[in-house]
Amino acid sequence: MDNFQTVLRFFMNQKATIGYSFMALLTIGGERVFSMVSFQCPCNLNQNFAYGITFLLGPAAVLLFLGLFFSTRLWRLYTGCCLNPMKLCPRGNCFGCLRVLMSIFTGACVAPIMWLCVALLNGTFYECAVSGLNNNVVVDLFCKNKTMKCREELAHVPCDRSKLSNDERLDLLLMFRAQSQILGWSLIIVSALVGLLGTCCTNCRSKVSYLQLTFWKRYMEKEKERFDSFSVEYANKLAERNLQSFFENKNAAPFPFPNHKAWEEISAYYTFSQSEQYYSTLQRYVEKTDREFHPEKRPVLDSDYGIEMS
């Protein structure tokens, strides 16, 4: 039993690494499916570049949008900001807001960068895209020391319909593949370097020590886990109380519930302050001694239409 708990604790501590590894495997698998099933280079001078670049950048853009769409931090920061712009920059902390937005964006960029790296290392999409370039400088670079037919048949190189000799076509394919893989490895190195420098800069400017920062991260994880489970439990109790009151046709028993202002306070963006020593907006709200309760007279959210009510 102790060994099982040790293994479980190890996987829980490494869940970020495991998650990124799983994402990388999905990216590799998705790229292979795209390359083998749906991707067919048209081998046309007017279509190759647009077709190849669409398959190279299109899935990356979709993954970026999905990463932003499923980011709870983004929606926590953005929800309600049109009616109350100060939610984006509480206490005038615009720099902290920009830093959070940058963190959200960089987190959403992980999957697109993985896709670009895998796609460039494979080289299929890049071959189709660059073979459709009609720039004289680029064509002269590709067809240097080759016959004039190279310029005419460059767009047909990714396909078997090229009239070039096998050796000449193979040389061009190898050159395209090498360029694509160089770009892929360059993107990997740049991304790793930017990630390392960003982490170093963040830790260097941290207001807390390494152990306190580790405790802070653990606390936020546990608070989120307990909040989710407690919300489900509390929602079940509230639903059961309301349904029981409705079907039994009797007055509902008193049921304590946070007011709208309390929800707003714990949903706000929070930055650590050495003078307060709190680790979340929830803790800051709970520690307050001057909390006031004002029950809402009408619903704050119309769930049927999803619009705010004044």
Automatic annotation (TrEMBL):
One of its GO terms (biological process) is ATP export. One of its GO terms (cellular component) is plasma membrane. It is a multi-pass membrane protein. It is found in: Membrane. It comes from the Eukaryota. The chain crosses the membrane at residues 18-37, 49-70, 100-121, 182-201. Keywords: Ion channel, Ion transport, Membrane, Transmembrane, Transmembrane helix, Transport. Its main location: membrane. GO terms for molecular function: monoatomic cation channel activity. PANTHER family: CALCIUM HOMEOSTASIS MODULATOR PROTEIN, CALCIUM HOMEOSTASIS MODULATOR PROTEIN 5. Belongs to the CALHM family. This is Calcium homeostasis modulator protein 5. It comes from Takifugu flavidus (sansaifugu). The lineage of its organism: Eukaryota, Metazoa, Chordata, Craniata, Vertebrata.
